[in-house]
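Q: What changes when adenosine-5'-diphosphate is included in the input?
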Amino acid sequence: MNATAPQIVVRCPADGRVVGHVPDMSADDVAAEAERLRNEQVEWEAIGFAGRRRWLGLFRDWLLDNQDRLHRLIREETGKAWGDLSMGEIAVAVDVLNYYASHGEAFLTSRSPRPHSAAMITKKLTVERRPYPLVGVITPWNAQIANAMLDIPAALMAGCAVLSKPSEETPLTWVEVVRGWREEVGAPRVLGCVTGAGHTGSAVVDNVDMIQFTGSTATGRRIAARAGERLIPMSLELGGKDATIVCADADLERAAGAVVWGAMHNAGQICVSVERAYVEAPVYEEFVDRVVGLVTQLRWGMDEPGEFATDYGAMLTASQLEIVESHVADARTRGATIRTGGRRAPEGLFHEPTVMTEVDHSMACMREETFGPTLPIMKVDSIEDAIGLANDTPYGLSGSVWTRDERKGREIARRMNAGSVNVNNVLTNVFQLPVPMSGWGDSGLGSRNGPEGILRYTRPQSVISERVAFKSELYWYPRTASRAKAMARLTRLVGARDWRRRLAR
Ligand code: ADP
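A: The predicted holo structure follows.
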């Protein structure tokens, strides 16, 4: 890293304390790191799947052995509740590493298809998935390890080098993870990290062969435009406004528990957070009562490591807290009832867990991404209405449905405009590694997880060789009438599907 670069000061959002610095890297710094990674990638691809699997395994072991230390770092730079942050970050990383280490090779197996027609019978065909040499992975501030590790293991397993850039708001933990890969695991230097703000991210896009981005839709559009100019492929996981639909026959105890967790986990700062609920009229009052009952018991704030004294912690940025406040204020002004919560804390970037009813689609809280510990709940007369309202959004990340009739749940799921839908659960789609997670509409392009999650980092390379090499072929030079006639005959013989045409002169 460039020691003379200007520094970014990292503060804990719970109390504003300075917890570290990272360099704000320039485009030249990024280009230099990209070149180093490209050089290392050649050998990384050459060591093959078995060699790469070994390093991924050692990386997994290092993450497991350093869990507590990494959790403390996350806590410092995010002000997250200890219980909240220790629930997923390392577990996700380990799971994804193991998944692609086990299945990556099979997903990328070379193929040798047979020639498709009798005229091509002399060809030997092979198609191999070759890695994009350098993949960029740009992440936001809401999950310090999991965000990156949902996408990086597949790229490494595919044989790519990875140039990562954590958010300038919370870069410390990820910088430490990449240092661990290099210095403590001692792995090849194919996982790089640059730090800085938007301009550093934009230099990443300018230097890589494929870009994976997780973050806001606005930034995603800018990255897509630049990737379009450079003609590099991209995979984008952007904002969401995930809806949950509670049918009259739902198990309300389970539904309420899950929806509260899905809306409040990490102070609502996850892309697949439950952002709004539609509940059928017969169970509306009971569902709201249950939700309010659970939400009023939630404890928020930044607790000590190992204390488990709070359920969720800080909003990670002041501007994000302002968005939450503005959505609550807008709902209030337009006639919503605040059933519980509704205010920011007097100190630190915290917001009370908030449940709102008497909400409608004129309100920002039902249409725009809130990304906070809020849950607006709307009563609906029918499932048709619920589906119509759930789909009244430009986003399409994920969603959920609650019913005791699993078949009905799946039918409702199919009618929701979202890349994944959970029936009788929330958020779990992200962790089902065999199936793709893709954002529709303004929620993204491409997908992670499953075979698609690794195929996106590769491009097909076909090699066509000749089993029999004649001195000349029919369609080469010279052009003669007899060759043209032979060609026409061959076209009929091979192409026609009836004997009259096949044999016609
Ligand atoms: P948020 O973190 O609020 O979701 P962004 O989507 O802007 O907000 O940020 C996500 C990541 O994208 C961060 O790492 C940020 O530095 C980076 N970033 C911001 N602007 C650009 C850009 N123009 N090109 C590439 N990366 C960017």
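Observations recorded in class: The CA atoms of residues 267 and 326 lie 16 Å apart.
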